[in-house]
């Protein structure tokens, strides 16, 4: 918690940040109830952070540009959306000029293992936040659908702690953040695991 809070308030000086402790039953609630306790206008303002791994990016060679083909990346996406793996692959491929783009066969995205998640983020599942990561070189990819909201909420480094902030502050003050088209809206009638 201290690591995340220090990163937000001191390292990145994000003055729009608000911290909110939530009850231990928070993840048992529907999204609308979660939004209400945080003071978020809609459920669209609630996000989660997912550490993803490109299973086909194994051992980088000297000179490899990992910023355009990372093995691990932290995705910040709305609970109301689904990560679209094809969009993620396309967005990563577009980081390189056309002549240097990697073939689609060089990508296989999966959620990182719990061991890699703990090692890279330093946070357990349900508490992952982009702030105070153990590996500060991990690119942070913010779903473009979050940008129009102006303010959003995400995990704060403890399963019962959330942090909200202005999107503009997140994008401009945090290193390694890129805004990318990564998601598709969920069907509101789908029965989804909202954790």
From TrEMBL:
This is YbaK/aminoacyl-tRNA synthetase-associated domain-containing protein. It comes from Craspedostauros australis. It comes from the Eukaryota. Signal peptide: none annotated. GO terms for molecular function: aminoacyl-tRNA deacylase activity. SUPFAM superfamilies: YbaK/ProRS associated domain (SSF55826). Residues 44-171 form the YbaK/aminoacyl-tRNA synthetase-associated domain.
């Amino acid at each position: 918690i201290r690591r995340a809070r220090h990163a937000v308030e001191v390292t990145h000086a994000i003055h729009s940040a608000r911290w909110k402790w939530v009850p231990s039953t928070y993840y048992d609630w529907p999204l609308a109830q979660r939004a209400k306790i945080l003071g978020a206008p809609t459920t669209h303002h609630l996000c989660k952070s997912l550490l993803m791994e490109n299973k086909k990016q194994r051992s980088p060679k000297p000179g490899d540009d990992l910023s355009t083909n990372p093995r691990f990346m932290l995705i910040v996406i709305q609970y109301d959306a689904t990560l679209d793996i094809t969009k993620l692959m396309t967005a990563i491929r577009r980081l390189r000029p056309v002549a240097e783009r990697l073939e689609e066969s060089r990508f296989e995205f999966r959620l990182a293992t719990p061991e890699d998640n703990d090692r890279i983020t330093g946070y357990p599942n349900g508490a992952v936040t982009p702030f105070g990561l153990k590996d500060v070189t991990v690119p942070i990819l913010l779903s473009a659908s979050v940008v129009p909201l102006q303010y959003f909420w995400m995990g704060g480094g403890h399963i019962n702690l959330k942090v909200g902030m202005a999107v503009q502050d997140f994008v401009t003050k945090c290193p390694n953040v890129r805004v990318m088209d990564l998601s598709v809206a969920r069907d509101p009638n789908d029965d989804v695991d909202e954790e």
